[in-house]
């Protein structure tokens, strides 16, 4: 998967617009996914969220990655904050 900065240019073949997300739970771990969307008259129309089911090794630019590292840096669990 590759991501580009937000642009109003037409999508290239094979591209789609999406919002990438990350969630964390101390019991369940980390989940990553995306929510595809299209635009109709400038308004977003969201599709069903997708959860990645393959092992991931996200870079620091992945959504939530730096926040997750910050929250768990000293061993504190995010639910303790």
Through-space gap between termini: 32 Å
- The strand count comes to 4
Order of helices and strands: EEEEH
Mean pLDDT: 77
In angstroms, what is the radius of gyration? Answer: 15 Å
Helix content: under 10%
Q: Any low-confidence stretches, pLDDT <50, length ≥5?
A: none
Tally of separate helices: 1
State the secondary-structure class: mainly beta
Shape annotation = elongated
Please, how many domains? 1
Kindly report the oligomeric state of this protein: single chain
- In terms of DSSP E residues, the strand content is 25-35%
User: Largest beta sheet, briefly?
Assistant: 4 strands, antiparallel
What structural keywords apply?
four-stranded antiparallel beta sheet; 81 residues; single chain; 1 helix; mainly beta; 10% helix
How would you portray this structure in words?
With 81 residues, the protein is mainly beta. It has one domain. Helices cover 10% and strands 33% of the residues. The chain contains one helix and four strands, in the order E-E-E-E-H. Strands 1, 2, 3 and 4 form a four-stranded antiparallel beta sheet that branches. Strand 1 and strand 2 form a beta hairpin. It starts with 16 loop residues before the first strand and ends in a 9-residue tail after the last helix. The relative contact order is 0.19.
